[in-house]
Amino acid sequence: MESEYNSFHLLPPPSHTIKQSPVLKVHFFAAMDGASDLFYFLPFMVFLIWMLLDFSKSRRGLFVKQEVSFMSEIVALSNILISTLYIGSFAFKAWKIEAIPMDLLFIALSWIIATFFTIYIKGRAKAGSSGWPCVLVSWWALSGMFQLFSIIIYLTKHFKLFALPNFLPAATVADFVSFPLSVFLCIGAFSMNIPRVSSGLEKPILLDDYENEDASTRTLSNAGIWSKLTFRWLNPLFEKGWFQRLEIHHVPRLPNSETAEAAYSMLQESLRREKPEISTLCRAVMNIIWRPLVFNAVLAGINTVASYLCLYLITNFVEFLSKEDEKRSHVHGYMLAFTFFFAKMAESLSQRHLYFGARQIGVRVRAALMASLYKKALTIKYSKMSGGNIINFLDVDVERIGDFFWYINGIWLLPVQVTLALVILYRNLGAAASFSTLLTTIMIIVSNTPLAESQKKLHSKILEAKDARIKATSETLKCIRILKLYSWESVYMSKILRLREVEGGWLKRYLYTCSAVAFLFWASPTLVSVIAFGVSILVKILLTPGTVLSALATFRILQEPIYNLPELVSVITQTKVSMDRIQEFIREDKQKNPNSCYNTDHSEIAVEIEPGEYSWQQDLSTGKPTVEVDKNLKIMRGEKIAVCGSVGSGKSSFLSSLIGEIPKLSGVGTKVFGSRAYVPQSAWIQTGTIIQNVLFGKEMERAWYEEVIEGCALDSDIKLWADGDMTVVGERGMNLSGGQKQRIQMARAIYSKSDVYLLDDPFSAVDARTGAHLFKECLTQLLSCKTVIYVTHQLEFLDAADLILVMKDGKIVQSGKYEELIASVDGELVRLIAAHKKSLNQVIPHMEHNLAAIKPYRKIDFELTEEKPINQIRNSESLYRTHEEERESGRVKYSIYRTFVTSSYKGALVPVILFCQILFQGLQMASNYWIAWATEKNDRISRGKLIGIFVLLSAGSSLFMLGRAVLLATIAIETAQCIFLKMTTKLFRAPIFFFDSTPTSRIINRTSTDQSILDTDIPYRLAGLVFALVQLICIIILMCQVSWTVFVLFIIVLAVSVWYQNYYISTARELARMTGIRKSPILHHFSETIAGAPTIRCFNQEDRFLAQNFDLVDDYSRITFHNSATMEWLCLRINFFFNLVFFLALMMLVYVPRKSIDPSLAGLAVTYGLNLNVLQAWVIWNLCNVENKMVSVERILQFSSITCEAPLVIENNRPEQEWPKYGTIELENLHIQYNTGLPMVLKGISCIIPGEKKVGVVGRTGSGKSTLIQAIFRMVEPSLGRIIIDGRDVCSIGLSDLRSRLSIIPQDPTLFQGTVRTNLDPLEEHSDLEIWEALRKCQLVKIIRQDSRLLDAPVAEDGENWSMGQRQLTCLARVLLKNRKILFLDEATASVDTATDSFIQKTIREETGCCTVITVAHRILTIINCDLVMVLNEGKILEFGSPSELLADKSSAFTQLTLEFLGRSKCNQNV
């Protein structure tokens, strides 16, 4: 009998071997010391390692594409049959002998692995693989030979042909049946095996096929049940990420149900179905997700039942281990082990799909809400909410609602979990202990509630402080050029740092509160267990190791609902607030005074204006209507309507009333018949190419396009740009000059072929020559048959109008033809023309000798147009970088981790925290082991001693837990502050080129989202990884104490896990990086749309922009969707391996005799082993997630390494307090180059600008006018030469010392959100009296006094509640307050009428009589009274002298310009 048994199982018979050597059986199984076991174990390990290596190579290989043959299907089926045979043989023998047959175990495992690999290779053939790997062919061949050998041995023994040694293996039924299949496998493998490396000729083609494979065919929607269950549908994505760096086009498309368009449609349909009186956004959202929500609830239920089933079985298993060998039933033990394994697998599968399902629901809801918010923001007019608030909905509230579905099942699961825990405790400890546990749990929840409430309040405070900081940062970045020119950046940086200090204060309180919550979380099982065991001892309940360990595991699992309840209440509250905020905005009336386009119906009327009142402020208690129309006006088709008036007369608001963009207080409104095109005064340019801005969604008509480009004078600019009209324009068109932006707007309007055109002063931003060209080519030719309503300050364009509307104080005070209006001597138009004539009279005396040469609109060779600002648009590569954000590739560098860890206290507290964690974990395990061991020795240990030592150990572990939490919070606060300070300092010290090439949204994303992750997420994730590793190591050590063979299994599984982690992270890392950069385009597009909403609505482009938003949201969703799915892919596999280790460990414990183990220790190992799969998945997940989250640190540190400008102050070379004293500027061979590799913009300029002189600077496009000013302010550093002011080289002093001593009025007047006072004197250096005096000099007193709040009157974002001219006058008042020796005007009067221009020049002459004034201007009137005029051409000085000297030369460029201006204005000479 013994020989027969050995021939099959190679193990000693239990009945004989155990009697001879009780320990021998354990060693045979656990340590495999016997030669027979090694005979099977070693080949198994060789095969496993070889298989893993080949598996790794197969993922990196290049394969020849071929069809899957019928033979391959048979091969796979044969493997499945053989595996099934050996599994059955193994199970039968294990049941029969009540032991583990090691030979069949290793053979069955080998065939299972071979089968899975065969199926994988067959599947790869569909994607292009071919041939069977060498490892499979070798396995089939060797298996066939071994089976043949076993059959021969069996037949020899059966027929007693001759004697054979007993250790030789004899065949089983499985060997006999499998042998023919193995022979077939060998024949099939050798006959169909094809070399897997293709020829060199085929390789590139095949690679292209692989690269270009349609990603949409590999989505979740097309996956089968098994593929969905195991997340195999992600395998192609992992393969792509393993081969190369992932890009957005490599990521599969979303399932249709999760796309933004589908989600938005479902949400809108749900809202429509709801009754208006009971309709809520929450109800509508639930309607579109109730099916996946119900499925997720089922998964949550399965997960909970499976996890609590394991707790329930612990008592049974420990009792089984405690039985003597003769009382054991191994079948019962194996059944328990299988039940544990089945429950853990059910728990793992349900948990992974539960988490993925929650993320999937979140993706759908997030997409629906993002699209709804965008649609509302696109259609709503004059909303009470600012653009920043709306973007906050998108960036904060929507994300919060999307994350809520991670917690939603906790609403009903929490009572279920508590109930199940109490049932298990009642079974183990009785009613008294269960009741005390319930009371203690309630007490802990109640004590946790104030902490949770405090957390909620502190979190709200953090968000409020963060909103204030982000708002200030956004405004600062938008105006950074002005701040640098004024040398105010240090003041504004201090303001942001003060706001951060406030935020940091709330953050510190929040994190320390979190420390208290964490302490309560980890200490709650200890407290509950102490009370429960104490009560059990008092009521004399019999405690056994099984009941104690089951109770301890239950206490640990109870900490989750205890901790989650307050958090759940907080999450529900926050989500409801966010939902209500979004609902309030979405439900806001689309427009309170509808103003839509009407069909033409062949009517001759183009626009019908009815009487009415309009105001930007609906509450008129503080003022009067902005626009008041008191009579009916009908504008016929083809008419040209001119609107004129002084600064602040309501011209732009009048146009806004025509397109319905200003609230109507009374009246019928305006009817516009036909399509409309709108050109706003403040240019709105989209991020994109020039051609995209011009076409604006229309189809390309090449002939018409070229005609429009030429008519708008863009052809010459396009020729200068390296990529022509395909050149990418940066955010807000910052890489273009004001004139170029205005002409692109004009081209956009004309190309649309609309019926009615509304032009808001498009001629102000361009020079005289270009303005005349635009008026002639566009209005009189391209738009000759169209209805045009144009606002203008250039009175020379009035006589071409069919009707002139003259505005004053928001009213149309005159209307009629030009001849009629000028006949009215007391009319407003005559007053305007008189002021214009007075200005002309300043020019005429200089030109008396040349007046005969005046020819209106004479074409001249010297073209005078505007110059683009600091960034040369011909550098198309740098501009493209404003569109696509750069990202790192490969692993996050070690230096990033080192910088992060050592940012606070140079990393000194890290070892202390690690020490606290080790002691916490060790003492916790010691306390658990003590109570389990002591209950077994109750006859030797008193109950007082039992509970006393347990309390001491538990209290010690809790104390170290508290120390760990507090120290971690301290490190987190200090690290966040240090990194933020470094990034902010570098940002404010960055050169202006950085801001021109980096969208504001990208910087905001770093300072908001990434900084938030750094504040509250990354330190805890990094620490959580370390803590989980410590806990995992402790559990492994504990389980190895029971059976050290487990250590070998752990090594194998850990090796596989690390391989999986490395395989996973190459894809997940890039997905995490793409997640970070795919959110910015949504925010950028959103803010850009809000800024240009009037233009978009006027052109009826809402649907196109909504489609663009859908695409951007889908790009973001597909990344986040697959990022979360890849995490579950990894965790599922890691869970399986550790569940398998746990199962094998249980099988070992069942097999091992009672005397060889300590049941208490074994039970403790099982108790902790229950969390093994979750803990290992947590370690791997944290390991990957830490790297993903560290991308945020990487992105912040990118901005912390920006190249800085020159120092603000050079201490050993500071100028005198009164410098500059005279204002003399010397330019010596000045060369300016914006970037290395670009041509010189200024080429050897040398001149002296005398002190206290007024100098005008003119020149054509690219001549270097604005560059000259930028160079003097050192916004761009000289490449060669020197700039000397009053004998001091400006490059030798600090930037702050230089810029603070100069003054400038920029072309784009910039106002900050705040009050009139803060806009004029942000540094609070002047008294109210001085401010009022400056306002009086700028004629702003009357305007300010219209608001009862006076200097505290609000100024809207970007000064939108002020006209362009009023903003310019405010900038003038700002300069007068500053009162510097040198003043620059960079086309500062482009947006005001002639009279206001003359007034500004007069004021400057009077108030800056002792100053040097350098003026860049388009208008001759602006510079005609200057002492000197500088004409630049191609970066060189063409002419430099007094106006009279230059005008005396009839051939000078300045003379030609003046003649043209006078010729253009000749129509007004006779008035």
Quick overview of this protein structure:
The protein is of the alpha/beta class and 1471 residues long. Helix content is 61%, strand content 8%.
Structure report:
With 1471 residues, the chain is of the alpha/beta class. 61% of the residues lie in helices and 8% in strands. The strands form seven sheets. The chain has a six-stranded mixed sheet, with helices on both faces. A six-stranded mixed sheet has the order 21-24-25-18-26-27. α17 (431-478) runs antiparallel to α34 (1000-1016). The protein is elongated and about 130 Å long.
Question: What key phrases describe this protein's structure?
Answer:
27 strands; alpha/beta; six-stranded mixed beta sheet; 1471 residues; disordered C terminus
Distance between the termini: 132 Å
Radius of gyration: 40 Å
**Arrangement of strands in the largest sheet:** 9-12-13-6-14-15
Low-confidence stretches: 1-35, 60-68, 126-130, 193-218, 590-594, 851-883, 1467-1471
Strand content: 5-15%
Helix content: 55-70%
The oligomerization state is single chain
Q: How confident is the prediction overall: mean pLDDT?
A: 77
Q: Assign an overall shape.
A: elongated
Structural class: alpha/beta
Number of strands: 27
Number of helices: 50
Largest sheet: 6 strands, mixed
